[in-house]
Design a protein that fits this description.
Elements (H helix, E strand, L loop, with lengths): L12 E8 L7 E7 L5 E4 L26 H23 L12 E5 L5 H8 L3 E5 L3 H11 L6 H5 L6 E7 L8 H11 E12 L4 H6 L13 E2 L2 H8 L3 E8 L3 H13 L4 H19 L4 E8 L1
Parallel strand pairs: 4-5, 4-6, 6-7
Antiparallel strand pairs: 1-2, 2-3, 3-8, 7-10, 9-10
Helix pairs in contact: 1-2, 1-8, 8-9
Bound molecules: zinc ion (ZN).
Length: about 300
């Protein structure tokens, strides 16, 4: 088994954490840290021919609006609040330097069932979306009245197509970060913004739950980022403008993590840890999930 860094190819890597796919398969995985580019990556990585099996669960939701129980309820409430928050971050950062106020053209890369795009559409944006899942594409296309395509189709579009590209908890699933970065760069207009939300393993909830932290979510999450590694991956293409927290994620992730521990009271315990995580992050900036806004160099 190779532990060479999957991004920079350095052999200078070390074991960071041993853990399981607590969510679905219960199989063992490891996370390695690259000493060179600082990326954390999951190993082994399931082959492309079988990775789909790890997403086969009714719980791996993007569309569980009708599930019963307190955790799905929280998930859906958080989702609604988060969509408004995500749109507000995107809108704040979309104005180009010449003050252009025309309808921004937004690509949501990995748009799932299209909830964010639906909100952006209602708020006057021109929208485009892509997703790997055929089911999600079908559902989103109907909801939005617009064809949602596969990533390959997006990669065949001409240069400088979009004002903003958003990736909401998507980059951690991408297995070819270099190719992805080049494509995002090419598709963005000059002065364009790239908005990337990822879990933050430096957060208090991550440190508290260790291998049971739900946002490691191996092997679905292939990469695990923090500020430094994300900037290394985008070096030469994008520069960091702003960072924003997604505070509600701390509660949801902590409740899921408590479920993996399995000692009961996951709702209350998760609420407490989520609150502690946000309180500590006020000083450190290390919230459970962070949104990074980059501009094209
Ligand atoms: Zn590396």
């Amino acid at each position: 088994m190779s532990t060479q860094c999957l991004f920079c190819k350095s052999d200078n890597t070390k074991l960071y954490l041993k853990l399981k796919d607590y969510f679905l398969s219960q199989e063992d995985f490891e996370i390695f840290e690259c000493e060179n580019c600082k990326l954390l990556f999951t190993t082994p990585r399931p082959d492309k021919s079988v990775i789909g099996n790890y997403y086969k669960s009714d719980d791996y939701l993007s569309h569980n609006e009708h599930k019963k129980g307190i955790v799905p309820w929280i998930y859906n409430q958080v989702k609604k609040v988060n969509i408004r928050r995500k749109f507000s971050i995107t809108a704040q950062n979309r104005t180009s330097k010449n003050g252009d106020r025309t309808k921004p053209h937004i690509l949501d890369f990995g748009c799932g069932v299209g909830d964010f795009l639906h909100y952006a559409q209602k708020n006057g944006c021109e929208i485009a979306g892509c997703d790997l899942s055929e089911d999600a594409r079908k559902y989103a296309s109907e909801k939005l009245g617009k064809t949602i395509v596969s990533p390959e189709e997006i990669f065949s579009l001409p240069d400088s197509t979009f004002d903003v590209i958003t990736m909401w908890h998507v980059l951690e699933h991408i297995d070819d970060l270099r190719f992805q970065t080049e494509q995002l760069y090419r598709l963005l207009k000059e002065n364009g913004r790239l908005v990337v939300a990822v879990p933050n393993y430096m957060s208090y909830d991550a440190q508290h739950y260790k291998d049971k932290w739900a946002a490691y979510d191996v092997p679905r999450h292939l990469n695990h980022f923090h500020k430094e590694s994300l900037q290394n991956i985008f070096a030469g293409y994008f520069e960091l403008d702003n960072i924003y927290p997604l505070k509600w994620d701390a509660y949801y992730i902590s409740m899921m993590s408590e479920k993996y521990i399995g000692k009961g009271n996951s709702f209350v315990k998760g609420l407490i840890t989520g609150w502690k995580s946000n309180r500590r992050a006020k000083k450190s900036g290390d919230y459970s999930s962070l949104v990074y806004v980059f501009s094209k160099i």
